[in-house]
Amino acid sequence: MENISIQELYDYLNSQEFQNTEGNVFYNYYIYQYPAAQEYKMRSAIQDFKERLQRPTNYVNAMTLDLFQVFCDFLKQEKFGEGSAFDVMLEIDQNEPDSVTEALTDYANSDMFIDYVKQLINNHMQLNDGLKKPYVFIYGIGKIYPYLRTNVFLTKYEKDNDTSSYKIILFYPGHQEGNSFSLFDEINNRNYEIKSGFVS
User: Fold this and answer.
1) pLDDT tens, 60-96?
2) How far is CA 184 from CA 39, 86, 172, in A?
3) Per-residue DSSP letter, 110
């Protein structure tokens, strides 16, 4: 399933065979790579996928997660002194940008954040809306960098990953080189060892 177009990706997502999660014995990660210049086009396509899949002919409720927005929401509910971690980071960023970057990286790589993502996904899967839920679309990879790298997120989430319930479609603005990923086609994301399916 390499080098497929956006329309071909939708055709996969729309197929009964690909929606079947019972075959996810070893992995359920699918990474769709695209040129970073197409970021806004891709975001629009993701929303289009969700709307078209939810029509009565499909009855699929695909979850969409902008990883950077989810991270911001996580920081807003994290207490830090009298306020939230989000507010404190904004306040001190101008005077101590390096300290803020270090703190945000620690938050993004924490088990607490991974647990937060896990709970969002679990809540979606438990929705009693009568629709199938075979997909979790994850994007915003470029926005959350450098706080969280793709390989780190997927590795840390693996312990909570329910391969038999859903497939994770991760939208990646870059390309793969061997076992490494090149974010924006320039920055290397090395040491990626999770077995995954590729739809690009």
Assistant:
1) 999 999 999 999 999 999 988 778 999 999 889 889 9
2) 10, 26, 9
3) S
Residue 181 and residue 188 in contact, taking contact as beta carbons nearer than 8 Å: yes
Cα–Cα dist 109/113, whole Å: 7
Strands 167-177 and 29-34: parallel
- Is residue 184 within 8 Å of residue 150, measured between CB atoms? no
Return the number of other C-beta atoms located less than 10 Å from residue 129's C-beta.
10
* Residue corresponding to tokens 């990953």: 161
DSSP, collapsed to helix, strand or coil, labels residue 142 as helix
The two three-digit tokens of residue 127, written as one number: 């929705």
115, containing H or E segment = helix 111-125
Q: How far apart are CA 175 and CA 186, in angstroms?
A: 9
